[in-house]
Amino acid sequence: MDIAGNIKELRSLTDKYNCTLVAVSKTKPEEDIKQAYDAGHLDFGENKAQELTAKYEVLPKDIRWHMIGHMQSNKVKYIAPFVHLIHSVDSAKLLKEVNKQGRKANRKIACLLQLHIAKEESKFGLSEDGLFEILNGEALGNYEHVQINGLMGMATFTKDMAQVRKEFKNLKRIFDRVKNEIDRPNVKMDILSMGMSGDFEVALEEGSNMIRVGSKIFGERNYQ
Ligand SMILES: *Cc1c(COP(=O)(O)O)cnc(C)c1O
Question: Residue 48 — very low, low, confident or very high, per pLDDT cuts 50/70/90?
């Protein structure tokens, strides 16, 4: 894989959309990340707290680490001191734990709330009602160590791009709804994280300003 070339090509597209490219490096070795880093890339995404932490420890400290995978509450403490953005907050319980660990680490942790927009039941995420329960809930008022910066969602894994587009449109609608309806100090809808290797073009057309791309940059993943 020409990792540096892939990054450059994608960045020329995302720049046009004022979109941030998160290079998803899960399962990939540090040398691959270094190639992207040496090409000037700083935003990397991982889906496991342990792998994220291990890579953070050995790679340059100006890398911005994005947590994009489903997390158990007991794993938050490992990434709280350094994580740049958690895309995958999918429950009130997890948000509470992020706030707790943010307090311990003496920082405000930037989060996206993950919505379930796909047809597949296996995917994680809040329902629209569940999202507004959190955003209107009393608890959020006491969370001084979390900042909700936007929403994340994953479309159905399918070649049917009309279906994917419909799901992204729905997420954008919910994003705009939050923008219009929620006025609280630690909620600021700046980031709409949607789009992966197979569907980022559609996502950009539908208003994404953060795409998470793995295999298109680093090649297919091998899971053991
Ligand atoms: C793995 C992963 C990606 C990237 O997937 P690709 O299809 O390789 O681009 C994006 N978002 C999440 C949440 C992921 O887990």
Answer: very high
The tokens of 79 are what? 């990434």
Centre of ligand 1 to C-alpha 133, Å, is 27
Mean pLDDT score of the chain, rounded to an integer? Answer: 97
3-state secondary structure of 159: coil
CA dihedral 21, 27, 30, 33 (to 10 degrees): -20
Tell me the three state secondary structure of residue 44.
Answer: strand
The highest-level CATH class for domain 3-218 is: alpha beta
Contact 164, 116 (CB under 8 A): no
Q: Which atom of ligand 1 is nearest to the CA of 47?
A: 15
Q: Relative to the CA of 88, which ligand 1 atom is closest?
A: 13
Q: Is the shortest distance between the CB of 198 and ligand 1 below 6 Å?
A: yes
Q: What is the pLDDT of residues 177-217, one digit of tens each?
A: 999 999 999 999 999 999 999 999 999 999 999 999 999 99
Q: Which helix (H) or strand (E) holds 204?
A: helix 200-205
CA 122 to chain centre: 18
Ligand 1 neighbourhood includes 69 CB (under 6 angstroms): yes
User: If we measure between CA atoms, which residue out of 88, 80, 111 comes closest to residue 187?
Assistant: 111
pTM, full prediction: 0.97
Q: What are the extents of the domains in the chain?
A: 3-218
Distance CA 215, CA 147 (A): 30
pLDDT in tens, 145-169: 999 999 999 999 999 999 999 999 9
